[in-house]
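Appendix B, example 12.
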Amino acid sequence: MAQAMRPNTATSLFATDGKPHPLQDTLLAVTLVLGVIAFVSAMFHNLHLLSSWTGLVGILTGAYGQFISETTRERFWLILGLGASAVGFFLGMAHGGLFGGVLG
C-alpha cells in the first residue's frame, strides 16, 4: 500500500488516471480559449464574424476532444468549453452569421 501514497509528478493536470494525455489536454485548452472568445465576443453585435467562427471551431474541437477524452475531469472542462462555444456560435449566427455583410 505504500505505492498508493507516493505522489506522481508526471501526470497531467486534468488526468485522474495517473497518465499524461497531451493531445486531450491541448484540445481541452483550445476548446476553452475558443469558448471564452466566442462567448465574450458574442456580447457585441458588430463582432458576429469572430463569435460565430470561433464558436464553430470551438464546437468542432470540443466534440473531437469529447470523443477521445479518457477522464471525467477532461470531459467536465470540455463540456464547459463546448457550452461557451455553442452560446457564442448561436449568438453570432443571430447577429449576422458566418458571412453576414461580407459576401453580400
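The first helix runs from residue 22 to 41. The helical segments are 22-41, 48-68, 72-95.
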